[in-house]
């Protein structure tokens, strides 16, 4: 039987030199804490370059901040994050268009092709930018709408912002990709006299049937016709649809003989100076509001969106109209972000009086 070895004796961790080291260290720390000036003088004497560099860097930083303060502020509209909850700055509304709610005797009517406007294509943050633009209107025709859900989200968002909107919406239309039209209106200023309906032509010439409805605001009652015409490959493919508009305009006006205030608005994909408009222009006092050299696409290349009506009847028009350049005012000419978040088209607007005696 083997004997077990006795365990080695435990050595004490107590060492006097360790205690002395810690006492000296504590004394040095205490001295430095109570006598900082010698250390500062030493650093200043031994490292003047460090001090000069620090002062120079601070001076440069202050100058840079002063010189670029406005540029730093301007970065906000350019930093649009998909999941951001920030609204466009209150200081950047469209300067050319005051809020329509300021004058109860006027209404602002508009048209807006909102690029692929669907529930899946816009986050809540992106939708806020669109809603910010829509607050400038009392009634606006929307093209390229893909579903009703995004419209419901938009109306809820506008209500949260203090704008009570409602809408008329069409069934899906079009050959190939289906689109929907909508009339978005402030229900505290606009009423619907006749609900929206599609115009169906016999020969199925148009790629998308136009949509129209009858509205009233104050003494002003009127019919709006909106359409999104074919883009195609060239102007020759687009022109037949433009020519057909004169027939459509006359049909809808004759369908409602008591109402001559008929306004055609939308995305026509053709300049108003094109010869295809001649048949419509031949109607008495027919005019269009958005004129060259104005452009309604954010690339500043095309004038496709417009209003058309007969001045002899629509006397409520007060001579004010234009284009909201949101791509410049909100996105600082960043066309890629403007198109992605909102659209490649700019919305158009026109103002009308609702206090005149309306006899047509």
Overview of this structure, please?
It is a single chain. Helices cover 33% and strands 23% of the residues. The protein has 360 residues and is α+β, with helices and mostly antiparallel strands. The chain folds into two domains: 24-67; 77-353, 4-Layer Sandwich (Deoxyribonuclease I, Chain A), CATH 3.60.10.10. The strands form two sheets. The protein has a six-stranded mixed β-sheet with strand order 3-4-2-1-12-11, covered by helices on one side. The longest helix is centred in the C-terminal third of the chain and has 21 residues, at 235-255. It is elongated and about 110 Å long.
* Known CATH architecture of the largest domain: 4-Layer Sandwich
- Indicate the proportion of strand residues: 15-25%
**Overall helicity:** 25-40%
Radius of gyration: 34 Å
Distance between the termini: 126 Å
Looking at the structure, the CATH topology of the largest domain is Deoxyribonuclease I, Chain A
Name given to the CATH homologous superfamily of the largest domain:
Endonuclease/exonuclease/phosphatase
Low-pLDDT sequence parts: 57-101
- Give the overall average pLDDT: 83
Number of helices: 10
Tally of individual domains: 2
Taking the sheet with the most strands, its summary is:
6 strands, mixed
